[in-house]
């Protein structure tokens, strides 16, 4: 089981929406995703930010499934968002996938991504104890 690490000797995570760190047990299987963007299976990129966030999370769900993992196994979440993105929408959609799980997280505003149509890019690290 992955163990959340939030030392009481430092300030708590911003708005208590993530964890400072996770300790992964020995012999765990690890998954490192590439940056994932809001593109549907046909290669279409919606112009709506909320739809792009949903696609990112759905694409990451499929990556986790392929590794026989789920959102409970995610220990690190890194998001890169363009400044015009709606952080409230992003947080609400992200929360639906994580629920009470609070992985270590980094979010950054970026000037741009490789494709100008992309409004965000997300990568994850997941760990599951070996069977």
What keyword list fits this structure?
two-stranded antiparallel ribbon; globular; 23% helix; alpha+beta
Short description:
By secondary structure, this protein is an alpha+beta fold.
SSE inventory with pairings:
Elements: E1 3-5, E2 21-23, E3 29-32, E4 36-37, H1 49-66, E5 74-81, H2 87-98, E6 104-109, E7 120-128
Parallel strand pairs: 5-6
Antiparallel strand pairs: 1-2, 3-7, 4-7, 5-7
Describe, in plain words, how this protein is organized in 3D.
By secondary structure, the chain is α+β, with helices and mostly antiparallel strands. The chain is built from two helices and seven strands; from the N terminus they run ββββαβαββ. It has helices at 49-66, 87-98, and strands at residues 3-5, 21-23, 29-32, 36-37, 74-81, 104-109, 120-128. The strands form two sheets. Strands 3, 4, 5, 6 and 7 form a five-stranded mixed β-sheet that branches. It has a two-stranded antiparallel ribbon with strand order 1-2. Strand 5 (74-81), helix 2 and strand 6 (104-109) form a beta-alpha-beta unit. Helix 1 runs parallel beside helix 2. The chain is globular.
